[in-house]
Specification:
The protein has ten helices and 13 strands. By secondary structure, the chain is an alpha+beta fold. The chain folds into two domains: 5-111, no CATH class; 173-398, Gamma Fibrinogen, Chain A, domain 1 (Alpha-Beta Complex). The strands form three sheets. Strands 1, 2, 3, 4, 5, 6, 7, 10 and 13 form a nine-stranded antiparallel β-sheet that branches. The protein has a two-stranded antiparallel ribbon with strand order 8-9. It has a two-stranded antiparallel sheet with strand order 11-12. Strand 1 (185-191) and strand 2 form a beta hairpin. Helix 3 (33-47) runs antiparallel to helix 4 (54-139). The termini are far apart. Mean pLDDT is 76; it is low at 18-27, 140-161 and 357-370. Bound molecules: calcium ion. Calcium ion binds at residues 322, 324, 326, 328-329.
Amino acid sequence: MYTNPCIHPLFVSCVLKLDMFNIVHKENTLIKCVPYYHNSLSNKVRQHESNMAGYVLIWAIFSSIDLLVHCQVYVFQNLDEHEQRISVLESSIANATSCCSALTKENEFLKIQNKQLFSMVQNLSAQFSALQQNMVALTTVPTTTPTPSIPTTKLITTTATPTPPAISVSRDCADLAAKGQTLSGVFDVNIGGNAKKVYCDFDHDGGRWTVIQRRQGAPVDFNRNWTEYRDGFGVLTTDFWLGNEVIHRLTAAGNNILNIKVMDWSGNIEFAEYKNFYLSDESTDYTMTVGKYSGTAGDSFNYPSSSLLRHNNHRFSTPDRDRDNSFMNCAQLLKSGWWFNSCYSSNLNGMFLKGTPHGPKTMGEVSGEPTLEGTGIEWYPWKHQQYSMAHVEMKIRPV
Ligand SMILES: [Ca+2]
């Protein structure tokens, strides 16, 4: 192992003059120090050639040359070591880059797997919900329909007896809630012997609600005829009318609460609730009666400002069946089915209109017909005329 000869004062002086970086990086540069010192020392020899100490300078020359040779060897050896270290570092950088690339790909793969797992969890949740409903249906024993006896011979000869469809015996959403159902959604019920799908709300205002109407902007036309309003239409998870016949049967036992929730275009929500909500049968045009009002939206069905605009104890009208108290056909003019009087202080089956306020209303004029803006989803006691709601829901439950 060499000690560093490059720190000799004579050599350092040379290096400083030639630029240290050149000496480190260019091997031939080191040689340049030799003539430099040769010239430098020669000058000194000439200056002191008569000097008796000249032999000392000559000795110094050879010593310097020897020193420089050692320095050159030292530098070259260290250059080799540095090059080896650089090579190792370059190899390490290449490995790190390769490793980083592999990690990135693995991360992307894990992200895809995560999405797939999330989708699987959602599917499993849906299947679990369906199984829960099936369990409720299977664990409930029918009380009115006796189980038919099957001849033994048939059991023996028939290897693949088709399974009859499961019959739900739940009367409504309150019945389902009593049996332990807690997740809101669409359910099969059996209303007065007729199978029907309903949307149950187990989340709001105490739950147990069977939703009979909802408006939230889905493209469902509510300008329908008598038969359609009787049987129901729309999509249970968005906008729909459950059907007058079903509502009649649901309320036939009496003592039902009707809850109406209305929301404006600023997101403000108010409600109107009526006790003893009841719908008569078709022979009396599904006449609606309600009891005591409570709430924050105001009372439209017993509208205090005008008896002509009240809906309590009035028949249901559709564009093709005028049962209102007006000389006009309110349902046809207002493109809706409702318990019109002469004509209305609420029309929750009106057209879904975006934007408020609406234009001037011509309803009531002899030659007039309501403008498009006059046919919205309205509830006078809260927003008065010409304001169409952004969201409406009507739901019922037994007390
Ligand atoms: Ca009329």
